[in-house]
Each structure stands twice: as C-alpha cells, then as structure tokens.
Amino acid sequence: MMNIALFGPPGAGKGTQSKMLLEKYNLTYIATGDMLRTEIAEGSELGLLARSVIDRGQLVSDEIIVQMIEKKISTNPDTKGFLFDGFPRTVVQAYILEGLLLKMNTSLNSVLSLEVPEEELVRRLVERGKTSGRSDDTPEVIQLRLREYYDKTEPVAGYYRDLGIYTPIRGIGAIEEIEHRLDEAIVSSLKNTWLNVVLAGPPGAGKGTQSAMLAEKFNLVHIATGDVLRKALAEGNELGLQAKPYMERGEMVPDEIVIRLIEKQMMHHQHARGFLFDGFPINIVQAYILDGMLKKMDSSLACMINLQVPTLESINRLLQRGKTSAATSCDANAEIILKRLLEYETQIKKVDSYYISQKKFIPIEGIGPIEEINDRLSRQIEEAFKGIR
Questions:
Q1: Pairing mode, strands 4-7 and 82-85
Q2: Pairing of strands 197-200, 110-115
Q3: Which residue has the higher pLDDT, 70 or 80?
Q4: Does the pTM exceed 0.70?
Q5: Cβ–Cβ contacts within 10 Å for residue 85, how many?
Q6: Is 208 exposed, middle or buried (CB count within 10 Å of its CB: 0-12, 13-18, 19+)?
Q7: What's the pLDDT at 193?
Q8: Of 187, 165, 167, which Cα lies nearest the Cα of 108?
C-alpha cells in the first residue's frame, strides 16, 4: 500500500492537492472533518455519539475519531492506499495511526507538509472570506487558527522527522508546480521502500532470464534457488554436499537446506533495496518461511508473479536447452524433466492459493519474445511498487 499524510495550515491548498493525489495514485481519502460530518448527517451510532459530545461543547475524543478511521479502513480492503488529510493532529494520534496501519501489515510511506508564508496564508483566507461567507475567515480568527495549527502540529512534525519520512513542500507557485513537488517527494520516499517480488513458473518458463533483467532494471538482489544450490555444490560446502544427491536425481532439495542457503544470501544483502526470488518459494512451507524471513527484516512481499507456460512448451524448451552449454544435468533426460514438472505443479498450487488469498498473485503469459514478456512483467512490478507498504 501507499499511505500518505498531507499536512498544511488553513489556506495552504490541501484540498486542491488532495484531489490530484487521490486521482493520480488511486488512494482512499481519509479526512476526519468530512468523516465526522458524514457520520452525523447519516445519524450513525458514531455520528450520534459525536453529536452528543459536540452539543455539550466538548471536543470529539480520539477514541471516536479512531473508530471512524478504522471503519473507513475496514470498508476499503482492496484500496491501493490511503491519503490522510488533517490526521494525525497530535503525537498520540500518530501512535494510534501507526497501530491501525500495523494491523494491515503496512505503514505511512511519507508525511508531506505544504509550507506557505504566514502573510500569504492570511491574504488567501481573507480573499476567500469575501466570497465564502465563512465567519472564521476574518484576520483576527485567522491568526488564532494559524497559531493553533502550528502549536499542535509541530510536535507531530518532529515525530515524523525522527522517523525520516517528513518532507516540507514549498506551497507557493502554480498549482501544477506544487503538484510536481509533491509527486517528486512521493517518488523519493518510495525509493527507500523495500520491493520484494517472487517470480514463479515451471522449469523452462524462462524465470532465470527474466529475473536477471528485472533485477537489473529495478535494482533488486536476484536470489535464484538453482544458482544458490549450484554454487553451494561447486564450493563443496556442507549444504552443497547435502543437496547433491537430490539434484542429481532431479528431485526437490529439502526445505531445510534451501532455506538456510537463501537466508544466508538475504543476510549478506540486508542493506539492499529489495529481493527478486526466482524459484522460491516452491511449496507452502517455504511461503510461510519467506514471510517470516522478510518480517525479520521489517519488510514484506509485494507480489508473486507466475509465468504461465504450457507443459509441452516447457518440455520442449528444456530439451532444447539440454543441447546447449547452458544445460543442467537434468535437461537431457525427458523422464526427469516430466518428473520435475509434475512435482512442481503439485507443490505450486498451494503456494498460488496462499498468495491469491493475500491478493498478491499475478498470472502472466510466458509465451512470446523475451522483451515482450519482460515488458509485461515490468508493468506488473511497477504497479506493485505503487502499492507496497
């Protein structure tokens, strides 16, 4: 998910910029003021509760506000992310928001603050007051509202500065110029976000070729199960020797061996931008373990892409590869190839279902020119990049 909090004092232009961000990134809008008015107008249980508090001349509590936000979040499970306008207003609310997003296995990507000189804010609001008829658009009330905003939001800004996700945005200039600055800040914040992708597909689907191209294009660490196993075997280390008999028979290497090798690779590249897993996970146990390994690194999987290639095509490709210098010990034996394909299909079904339930499964046709397939994969990864935590 892409989650953004947009700050700005009265008159900074949050409303205008919010509309553009919502449309551009396909986000769900969460503005506490609008939500409060909607709940009251609909006469919902939360609305009636809020109305009773307001009628007593009191401020609506965090508890009520949070329930409204949680309701909004829970009713938009398929969203690409959220744009929070005017929330959080206090450090306590910042902690609360962190907890709410954590429940969804996500967090804020960036906190953007529109910065406009006070004299310009006063000028804008006074001008607005001439046509809006709002009683709070007078110079005296405007000054009070600005002081209140700065007093309340400075501690929140400090909280997000410490987290490294707070970015001040110059709010002076043409609307399109300000939009461009916001967009640049969002893109920059995503560069610091891990992108983890699984590329699955039967033996002969072209995973190795595509993974290498994608890893270079998106600056990811390519972890290929086959390469890791062959390297361990060539080095003659303990894990390589344990894997050798399984590889020679064309059988799946036990999870215990594969996982130890992959974890070693991940820890060696723990400062990477992300990982592209090629041929892993191959079964449901490995899928569970991968989630655990990524969580240990405070990250998660963005998507699992499955290259769809017919069985006969896979067999033909592997037999052809068996005649080249790129052949493996299993590629020239049709019986072993068929055994590998059948074992793959049996195991991968549960993995597919696992990622389908998480809405992270993306099937891609694996037939066609290499560049054409790569374009299909790249488009899907770019979409996944917009939706990661």
A1: parallel
A2: unpaired
A3: 70
A4: no
A5: 22
A6: middle
A7: 66
A8: 165
Q: Domains (ranges, CATH) in the chain?
A: 4-27+79-191 (3.40.50.300), 197-387 (3.40.50.300)
Sign of CA dihedral 94, 100, 106, 112: negative
Question: Under 8 Å CB-to-CB from 314, ≥6 apart: which residues?
Answer: 202, 203, 204, 205, 337, 341
Cα 102 from Cα 190, distance rounded (Å):
18
pLDDT digits (tens, 9 = 90+) for 90-127: 899 999 999 888 777 678 889 999 999 999 999 988 88
Q: Which two tokens stand for residue 308?
A: 């769809």
Distance set, CA 124 to CA 20, 84, 176 (Å): 20, 23, 18
Please say if the pLDDT value at position 303 is more than 80. Answer: yes
The average confidence (pLDDT) of the chain is 86
User: CA 333, CA 322: separation in Å to the nearest integer?
Assistant: 8
**CA 138 to each of CA 135, 152, 250: distance values in angstroms, whole numbers, following the listed order:** 7, 21, 79
